[in-house]
Design brief:
The complex is a heterodimer. Chain A is an alpha/beta fold. Chain A is 38% helix and 13% strand. Chain A has a domain of 290 residues: Amidase signature (AS) enzymes. In chain A, the strands form two sheets. Chain A has an eight-stranded mixed β-sheet, sandwiched between helices. A three-stranded mixed β-sheet of chain A has the order 1-3-2, sandwiched between helices. In chain A, 61% of the residues are buried. By secondary structure, chain B is of the alpha+beta class. Chain B has three domains: 284 residues, no CATH class; 115 residues, no CATH class; 58 residues, Arc Repressor Mutant, subunit A. Chain B has a nine-stranded mixed β-sheet. A three-stranded antiparallel β-sheet of chain B has the order 5-4-15, with no helix packed on it. In chain B, strand 6 and strand 7 form a beta hairpin. In chain B, helix 6 packs across helix 7, helix 9 runs antiparallel to helix 10 and helix 12 packs across helix 14. Chain B is elongated, with a radius of gyration of 30 Å. The chains are: A alpha/beta, B alpha+beta. The interface between A and B is large, with 45 and 28 residues.
């Protein structure tokens, strides 16, 4: 039961092979068993799950069920959930219970999905290893001494270990795709504006995008269908028609042109990872796609530009956590300044503080032009690179990450190496494009992810391509060791 | 040495939208603390701002009224600083690309002398909340009702040369925003307040002197007092060999002086950058044309029209055109009458009606007498049916009755008696009864005419037409009869 995809679970529920409550109970038991090892959940929500299961059951019985009714899922702990703590992986919000529901969780709820809990993450989504969580590191189900990637590491580990069939994530610089790659699952970062950011705790507003992590592209299509669409509460949400993502999954790939950027196969890419990527590209060729080499000349500028823009926005977005109205407040503040400095000093972890300082510096008088404005210019160049590429190819393909999952603790003292994990993913956020990572191999029993990048609002093509690949491969079906029962 | 004063004003006008600039909370004044603060106003995690389109329309309204450039593309920026009543740790404002720039407004700087004051820019921003220091025993209370209230910050060029000009400019703008209906201009409630940038320089010098900024002046009188004090202070410092420190100062109305705001002297770095939660505001020509279409006639134009086509005196025209509600009321009344009655309407509105409203503490919009009723009344004064004396009585009655003027006149038999035969007959009796007074009058004591008029009025219970009585008396007493 727990190893089934959403599509399979939906069919089984409709055939009454088991009830929503039975399914929910099975998965809650798995969470109880695995969470002490993996630490994938900050807050399991069994009570909420049981209630929602009963409601979903009623809809199934009444014939008012939607495709996702009764399907369990988990939310990254930065989607605000009314009445359930939203910690954002931080001591700062360890006591925060939102009085409102995020657009993403609201839509999942409306579709009849059953929330099993809130997943672990790097504090305020800042990190690539999930080691920056106030609630402790998450372990990779494939190798428990390795990181699951981040910042949506809890969601990735939970899906990979079959604790939930799907989980939400957010992607600011690779935070859905990189952990998806490290844990052998499929992760979709939609076009900026495709999914509402209402109720999603902000890291870097112009880059943050909610998305979905599941085992297959087919399942991602189902969940994206539920969460995508215009929301007047988010001014950056796109008023753009949402197609039927499942309807085009089986389309033939012949005639499709894949572009392989030279820049994504340069130094730093692990040769065994490259091998898997080349094999996957060969597989796409077999499926009828044409492959050609392309150039994305501004690629090398993406990391520096990202690490100016994202911290700059974060330094402002995180200013609201001041110990005044909610969240962590230091003991016995002496005066206002003491309240601010100690509440923030004690409430935020090291990486968050580092980025607030970097961002504050980048926006400061005298530095703004050299950093923030320059980074915005680079951002335009990167967008143009992609637009040029998409005038020649339909999809861009390459590795999601330069290596497979690394050991816990291996990069904690080296932030720059840590930041380079996102070398292939951040440009996509700077351009606002949709991208998907799906598993294409194992290196020393650690998963490898392939990244597909499409033009704006062409999530359907990403899902269609990945689905066709998954029809002729089984990397997405591999179970991490120790997760079979 | 002769000194010249240079002043620029930054005026904050609260826009009269029903909801806040980035949230759906109400903006009404005076609600219990924090009852008009939503998750957005509180800056809770994950909430997002959505721009109130009405605030944009109002800003464009002002821009058009001051002949400014309206930006086709403008941007909201974050002004970052920490303060307990600033929930997000930043204020959403406009920085590099304001919605309105390069405007102008005319003021009357001395009797009959007009001067054009440049307006550098006007930008939209949100207000902060309020810190309450009283009643909390060593703690500070925070009321976020005001947080997110839409403001239009209107920045003048340093074109003002005296406290008097500064006040004239502020009054002109105050009149304009109320005229446009974009702000209630209520200064006690802080809906219209200003910061004054003041400097002095030797007459003839082109470079500006070092300026100080006096914060948060919320009455015309305070603006005048604060600037006058500050100018004197700066001249005093300079004439004694000192120099002016660029700083922020506060006006203390109790002592009539400005004081340096200590502790805020270090320069703030607000780290402005475009707010990524909001899209740039793009305005097209059609939108701007539609706003222009709905723009009311502006006070100066209206004043001139009332002088030229209604024949009002400049003083009456200025008073009536100065407030839109008064001008609208006036025009509704005149619409129901002949234009030749315009002066009569102006006299009655500025005299009797104003006095009546004043006594009852009411504004013209809450007048118990509708323009239609006043028109009905003045129609009868204008055509001679009603004497001015009795018309005042009818006005009083109208203030607590919805009745028709003609019905009141008929019911109470108030029609003026202009029938010469009846009046002549009465006068003959009066003159015959008072031969002594007639003799005195003819001997030169002409003041006695009033006595005869009074006698006649007594006979007709005040309803006789005084003009007719006067004319007939003149004839009879001068013996030309």
């Amino acid at each position: 039961m727990f190893d089934s995809t959403i599509r399979q679970l939906g069919q089984a529920l409709r055939r009454r092979e088991f009830s929503v409550s039975e399914l929910t109970q099975t998965l809650l038991q798995r969470i109880e068993a695995f969470n002490p090892i993996l630490n994938a959940f900050i807050s399991p929500t069994p009570e909420v799950a049981r209630q929602q299961a009963v409601a979903a059951e009623a809809r199934l019985a009444a014939g008012t069920a939607e495709p996702l009714t009764g399907i369990p899922l988990a939310h990254k702990d930065l989607f605000c959930t009314a009445g359930v703590r939203t910690s954002c992986g931080s001591r700062m919000l360890a006591n925060f219970i939102a009085p409102y529901e995020s657009a993403v969780s609201e839509r999942c709820q409306a579709a009849g999905m059953v929330m099993l809990g809130k997943t672990n993450m790097d504090e305020f989504a800042m990190g690539s290893s999930n080691e920056n969580s106030f609630f402790g590191a998450v372990r990779n189900p494939w190798d428990r001494d390795c990181v699951p990637g981040g910042s949506s590491g809890g969601s990735a580990a939970a899906v990979a270990a079959r604790l939930v069939p799907a989980a939400t994530g957010t992607d600011t610089g690779g935070s859905i795709r990189q952990p998806a790659a490290f844990t052998g699952i499929t992760g979709l970062k939609p076009t900026y504006g495709r999914v509402s950011r209402w109720g999603m705790v902000a890291f870097a507003s112009s880059l943050d995008q909610g998305g979905v992590m599941a085992r297959t592209a087919e399942d991602c299509a189902l969940v994206l269908q539920a969460i995508a669409g215009f929301d007047p509460r988010d001014s950056t949400s796109a008023d753009h028609a949402v197609p039927d993502y499942s309807a085009t999954l089986d389309q033939d790939l012949s005639g499709l042109t894949l572009g392989v950027p030279q820049e994504y196969f340069s130094t730093g890419l692990d040769s065994a990872v490259e091998q898997c990527i080349q094999e996957a590209i060969a597989q796409y060729r077999k499926l009828g796609a044409q492959v050609r080499e392309i150039r994305l000349p501004s690629s090398a500028l993406a990391i520096p530009a990202y690490y100016v823009i994202a911290p700059a926005e974060a330094s402002s977005n995180l200013a609201r956590y001041d110990g005044v109205r909610y969240g962590y407040r230091c003991q016995d503040p002496e005066d206002l300044l003491d309240l601010y400095t100690r509440s923030r000093g004690e409430g935020f972890g090291a990486e968050v503080k580092r980025r607030i300082m970097v961002g504050t510096y980048a926006l400061s008088a005298g530095y703004f032009d050299a950093y923030y404005r320059k980074a915005q210019q680079i951002r335009r160049l990167i967008r143009e690179d992609f637009q040029n590429a998409f005038s020649e190819v339909d999809l861009i393909v390459g590795p999601t990450t330069p290596t497979t999952a690394f050991a816990l603790g291996a990069q904690v003292d080296d932030p720059v190496t840590m930041y380079l994990n996102d070398i292939y993913t951040v440009a996509v956020n700077l351009a606002g494009l949709p991208a998907l990572s799906h598993p294409v191999g194992l290196v020393e029993n650690r998963p490898v992810g392939l990244q597909l990048i499409a033009n704006y609002f062409n999530e359907a093509l990403l899902l269609n391509s990945a689905h066709r690949y998954q029809q002729v491969s089984d990397w997405h079906q591999h179970l991490p060791p120790g997760c079979a029962d | 040495m002769q000194w010249e004063t240079v002043i620029g004003l930054e005026i904050h006008a609260q826009l009269a939208t029903r909801s806040k600039i980035f949230s759906g909370s109400a903006t009404a004044y005076g609600a219990p603390p924090n009852t008009q603060a939503s998750a957005i106003d509180l800056g809770l995690p994950g909430v997002l701002p959505v721009l109130n389109a009405e605030a944009v329309r109002m800003a464009v309204c002002l821009g058009l009224a001051i002949e400014a450039e309206i930006a086709r593309h403008c941007v909201f920026a974050r002004k970052n600083y920490f303060y307990p009543d600033l929930p997000k740790g930043y204020q959403i404002s406009q920085y590099e690309q304001p919605i309105v720039s390069n405007g102008r407004i005319d003021i009357e700087c001395a009797a009959g002398q007009r001067k054009t004051i440049g307006i550098t820019r006007a930008h939209l921003e949100e207000d902060a909340g309020k810190s309450l220091h009283e009643d909390f025993q060593g703690l500070t209370g925070i009321d976020l009702n005001r947080a997110g209230t839409p403001l239009l910050e209107i920045v003048s060029e340093p074109d003002l040369r005296s406290a008097h000009e500064a006040v004239a400019y502020m009054k002109q703008l105050h009149q304009l925003v109320r005229y446009l209906g974009i702000s209630d201009g209520n200064m006690q409630e802080g809906s219209f307040r200003c910061d004054a940038n003041v400097s002095v320089r030797p007459v003839g010098q082109t470079a500006f002197g070092t300026r100080t900024e006096i914060k948060n002046l919320n009455s015309f009188r305070f603006v005048e007092q604060a600037i006058e004090f500050e100018v004197e202070r700066q001249i005093h410092v300079l004439e004694n060999g000192g120099s002016i420190v660029q700083e922020t100062r506060l006006f203390d109305p109790e002592r009539g002086e400005t004081r340096s705001m200590r502790g805020k002297e270090e320069a703030h770095d607000y780290r402005y950058f475009p707010d990524p939660d909001l899209l740039p505001v793009v305005l097209d020509d059609a939108f701007i044309a539609a706003v222009r279409e709905q723009l009311p006639e502006l006070p100066d134009v209206r004043r001139q029209r009332l002088i030229n086509t209604h024949g009002l005196s400049p003083a009456d025209a200025a008073q009536l055109a100065g407030q839109r509600a008064w001008a609208d009321y006036y025009e509704t009344v005149v619409d129901g009458l002949e234009v030749s009655a315009a002066k009569l309407v102006a006299n009655w509105m500025l005299g009797e009606l104003a006095a009546l409203l004043n006594r009852q503490g009411l504004t013209i919009s809450a007048s118990p007498i509708s323009p239609q009723q006043l028109a009905g009344l003045l129609r009868r004064v204008h055509d001679g049916t009603l004497s001015g004396h009795l018309a005042k009585e009818v006005l009083t009655e109208l203030s607590h009755s919805a009745a028709d003027v003609d019905d009141i006149i008929a019911q109470r038999g108030l029609q003026q008696i202009s029938d010469t035969t009846a009046i002549e007959a009465a006068l003959d009796v009066i003159l015959a009864d008072h031969p002594e007074q007639v003799a005195q009058y003819r001997a030169g004591k002409t003041k006695l005419k009033g006595f005869f008029v009074g006698q006649a009025m007594k006979v007709f219970k005040g309803k006789a037409n005084p003009q007719v009585i006067n004319a007939l008396l003149d004839r009879k007493l001068t013996g030309k009869d």
